[in-house]
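User: My instructor asked us to take a sequence, write out its structure as tokens, and then describe one feature of it. I'm not sure where to start. Here is the sequence I was given:
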Amino acid sequence: MDRIAKIREYLIANPKDNFLRHALALELIKTGDDTEARGLFEALLMESPSYIGSYYHLAKLLEKLGERDLAIEWYEKGMEEAKQAKDQHAYNELQAAYEDLVY
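Assistant: Let's start with the prediction itself. The structure tokens for your sequence are:
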């Protein structure tokens, strides 16, 4: 069974598992299914805004899709969440990607 199928199987039992949803979105990006990956990231972050790792990947995906302004918004949201969580490492990664895009 391939990775995507395996993750989907796990998600049947745990449909709100953020780690699995994030992992599935990353695997979908690898296969070029950007639309489903985007939907997964957006749903995950709307339901669990403190799942900081997904902000970076969603914003990078939006950059790839040519949605610069939306990517900037997600980087900013991610930086705010990282700051609230006192996660300096995530904040720095988001800020560096944000600055690369903006400047």
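For the description part of your assignment, you could build on this observation: The two ends are 43 Å apart (CA to CA). Try explaining in your own words what that tells you about the chain.
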